[in-house]
Amino acid sequence: GVLLVPGVITGERAQVLPEPARRGVRRGRLVELSKPSPHRVAPDCPYYSRCGGCQYQHISYLQQLEIKQQILAECFERIGRIHLEVPIQVIPSEPWHYRNRVRLQVEKNSSGFRVGYLEHRSHTLVPVASCPIAMPAIEAVVKELTKCTLTELFSEGTFELELFTNESGGSLLATVYAAAPAPATFGDSWRSVQPQFESVCWSQSAPRLRSAPAADTVWGSGAITYRVGEFHFRISHHSFFQANHSVLRPMMDAAISDHSGARALDLYAGAGFFTLPLARHFERVAAVEADPASARDLATNVGVMGTRVHAHRKTAERFLAATSHNWELVLVDPPRTGLSQPVLEGLRRLASPRLVYVSCDPTTLVRDLKALGVSGYRIESVYLADLFPQSFHIETIVHLTHRD
Question: Kindly report the CA angle at 169 between 177 and 212, in degrees rounded to 5?
Fold first, then answer.
């Protein structure tokens, strides 16, 4: 049978200790490596053996891309039963210092607080003083956090910290998730850690329920400006934005390509990452986003485009049920769960000539592509955007055309 062994590369010979099966998956633990792969490299991070954030640091970057291509191709063939007639085009990333956003766990101990990531398949905290996949501005904050007890920055019941920076690293946002209300001086305390903090949000909510309604106390501007080429985006606390600064422009270009025309529809628009470039190529664009924070940023960001762009704060399901326009292009960038049945039905009814699907989960992507194929769409091109080097996560951009 198949045994999943973290830290082993295909083709290596190793001594492995089997572990009890969990949820039907058999795993093993690497004991000794007798024949290493030529693609094996020394991890850059001192916490790699324990930290659950990365899975591929022991593999050369070019081989990581090769593995991801193979995984994506297998998803099409085995899960989707889709025979790809086009090559998978790869958009590579900077392998290190690419992440503009990190989420750290916070834990109280006898001397104050400590921050870090969770261990592989565990709720045990691994305290970190560095993170080589984070942009330098974020890594500098992580290093500073190890130099103090953090009692001025956190309070009883603090469980998570999110750090976000813009393309230059010149502006920083911090969002603290805690069960208790904000201390009176929390903003000034964070500014003393790093003067680049534009805004700090204290989000009072229950642990493990970050998506639940929270009472926010905001110090500072409440947002930072993120520039991608000629486009400027306002990004506030809780708002969604792609996490890899080095592939943002290539990803934008791959998704929009040379499409142009009268009307385009951007579903799950977030803060408008694809909306603004679409507005340069189409006469009218509708952008649809249900999340309150992202929808507010979207409305601000598309404001510079005047009447060419209309932002709609509603679900994709509600919008599709009501729209009757002929959209020449529809772009969808759904969450990991993919497209719901009503959205797939709405897209089938619209039958737009061109469809662009941006996905962060290959399994739900190929499931939806199979349904779209039945609705008359055929795949024109496939891009693998490596948004998360050193990890197994895969981002995909698929261009489809409708067979009239």
Answer: 20
Q: Give 130's contacts (C-beta < 8 A, 6+ positions apart).
A: 45, 46, 139, 142, 143
d(CA 383, CA 396): 6
Asked, for residue 5, whether it belongs to a domain, the answer is yes
DSSP string across 107-139: EEETTEEEEEEEBTTSS-EEE-S--TTB-HHHH
Cα-to-chain-centroid distance, residue 66: 21
Alpha-carbon gap, residue 79 to 367, rounded angstroms: 7
pLDDT at 25: 83
Residue 187's domain comprises 101-227
pLDDT tens per residue across span 74-108: 999 999 999 999 999 999 999 999 999 999 999 99
Which pLDDT does position 147 carry in this prediction? 85
- Look at residue 304 and tell me if it is in a domain: yes
Q: At 252, phi and psi to the nearest 5?
A: -60, -45
Same domain, 117 and 136: yes
Q: What is the CATH number of the domain that holds 197?
A: 2.40.50.1070
Nearest alpha-carbon partner for 134 in 161, 154, 107: 161
The count of domains in the chain is: 3
pLDDT of residue 324: 84
Residue at 65 is within a domain? no
d(CA 270, CA 278): 14
Both 105 and 89 in one domain: the answer is no
Residues 269 and 323 grouped into a single domain: yes
Mean pLDDT by 10 residues, the chain (404 residues): 86 91 85 94 97 97 98 97 97 99 94 92 94 98 88 90 97 94 88 91 80 78 96 96 98 96 98 98 98 97 92 98 94 98 98 98 98 97 99 98 90
Do residue 87 and residue 120 come from a single domain? no
Residues 206 and 279 in one domain: no
Residue 106 and residue 153 in one domain: yes
